[in-house]
Amino acid sequence: MSVLKKDHVMRDFFGHPGHFADFLNVLFFDGQKVVDASYLFPYQNDKTYADYHFSIEKRNDITMKWDTGFWQILINMEAQSQSDYTMTSRILLYDALNYALQDKHQKGCRFMLVISLVLYHGEGKWKALTSLMDRIEAPEYLKRLGNDWKIRVVDLKELDYRLFRNQENRQLIKGLQLIWKKNVAGLQNMVVTKGVAKVLATLTGQEELVEIIEKEGEEKVEMYSLWKDAIHIGMEDGRKKGKEEGIKTGREAGIKEGMKEGIKTGRREGQQMLILNLLQNVLGQLTPEIKKRIQQCDEHMLQVIGMHIHQIHNEQDVLKLLM
């Protein structure tokens, strides 16, 4: 999936005033309806600032202006799939650019407040520092003299989906939590809109599923079916990679029989790598015995494990399939 396509999916969902307002109410006001969607307006976030000395260009993922008629606030949402230590300096730059552009275009002494949020949707916890000063190497008595800049990171997996009033927002947060927890039972009973399904596929690194979802005739998507599609695509990618590696091995050998065996071996090794990764996602660290048994499996047995991955809860389940 192209970056442009990914951005389009994210902006379509989070750029909807109803979704955006509901998120703000949960993040800032514990779910109370303080921000009304009718007061939110898309804000041109293709920002370019140039003076005689330098030029900066920046585009936030989603930017809205909250305009009550009495005051205005710019709110930026930046989606992140991985911990990124540069976010403190980047958000500082983005916010400063917003204020600099206000100086440039409004020529007044008062600013609109700028609020930036980092929406973390990756697996595991955010590990990067959230304070610019924490990244500075200097004695504490000197660091106190400098200006700090702190960022607000929101881990979407830790939000209480019950606080959301918008049905699609609830589906999104609940679905994201179930997927990263590998809660297959929960996914079996979950049906979401196509819009939510596309965002979930994007947030969990399964962008290939977006085109499949878009071709669906129904407006609702079964999450369990989507999960199985993700496994199938992973298996196909593993086969393709294995075949390519096998052909490469055979070509280097320059022997027809070696090429044939290389293709077969490479394909099997690609599938083994995929199955080991899937099992580690479900079970965590694998024992040497399980790794060895998987490496001894033929293609048929690897396919059996792949198709039953959602039924595996411990290593004993794996061993039963291998019997």
From TrEMBL:
Transmembrane segments: none annotated. It holds the Pfam family Transposase_31. Residues 6-193 form the Transposase (putative) YhgA-like domain. This is Transposase (putative) YhgA-like domain-containing protein. GO terms for molecular function: double-stranded DNA endonuclease activity. It comes from the Bacteria. It comes from Massilimicrobiota timonensis. One of its GO terms (biological process) is DNA recombination.
